Amino acid sequence: MTDQPPPSPAGSPFDDLAVTVQLAEPLAKHTWLGVGGVTQYFCEPVSVDSLSAVVSRCNETGIKLRVIGGGSNVLVPSDGIEAMVIRLSAPPFCGVEVDGQSVRVGAGAKLVHLVSAAVQEGLSGLEDLVGIPGTVGGGLVGNAAAHGCNLGQRVHSVTVMLPDGTTEDRLRDDIAFASSWSSLDGVIVLSARFDLDEDDPERLTKRMQKQWIVERSEQPSGTRSVAMMFKDPVGTTAESLIAQAGCRDLCIGSASIYPSCANYVVTAVGCPSSDVQQLVEKVRGIVREKLGVELAPRIRVW
Ligand SMILES: Cc1cc2nc3c(=O)[nH]c(=O)nc-3n(C[C@H](O)[C@H](O)[C@H](O)COP(=O)(O)OP(=O)(O)OC[C@H]3O[C@@H](n4cnc5c(N)ncnc54)[C@H](O)[C@@H]3O)c2cc1C
Question: For residue range 94-104, what is the model confidence (pLDDT) as tens digits?
């Protein structure tokens, strides 16, 4: 008996690697918005070695590589993408280990799991981020933030994979974090270590629960088919500008603004990605014209 994965469908450049590669995988089911077409190749590697083999094969053959985390911040075009999409869902990429005041976590772990594991161990510093959807990897790449706290603030180091399949540890001082951005774009985040403060677990749990309720009240409820459209400009929120510009009731085709949380776009079943993109551009244009502010899109269009 061997625990080798079943072979990939014939004809892909990954056939000789011991990895399972799906062809024409629909990406809508991997994103919050639930829209978009297929990716040419899709893989959920079971180890760092198999990930490395896929990544270096993409590098050698010129195949574009994308990583999908929780899919809460990507928009996939309706006609799909020609790329290898990797999802770090296997156990070696999703662990959370606490050691004293330090937490090491895999990039594929959900951010909420990292926060709750830290709180359970009486470690504070991340609890304000509890309501943000997605993974630690996605959160680090876009420096996820809420209520004045951002994920980059507590990073000690991040382990990344480079396009040639080799890995590297980057210390906090070698990584730049800014609003909704980090210098980790362009590499694959494998894991990270966070340094946190000791606190009373009971008090932290209460604080985390309060944050969860606050964050939920600021997000669309009753649907997962949503995405946050814009970054908050310095000193104000995208939501207030969108409301001031009178865009709350806008819709294009099957994509509309979520009226009570105006920085979110919500999609109906069967919505083409172009409706979402056009709506984002329309809102951006109206805010620019009426208020003279250039909103920067938050959602990443593949
Ligand atoms: C309802 C809702 C509420 C939200 N609230 C907030 C909020 O309060 N604050 C906030 O900051 N954001 C918020 N967001 C936006 C989004 O959740 C965050 O940006 C989140 O951190 C994205 O993580 P993800 O795993 O879903 O990333 P994905 O959407 O899967 O990917 C985002 C980007 O990161 C890249 N990426 C993902 N994983 C890796 C990896 N391991 N290595 C390299 N690149 C990777 C992807 O290629 C892509 O470019 C919200 C979104 C929704 C839908």
Answer: 999 999 999 99
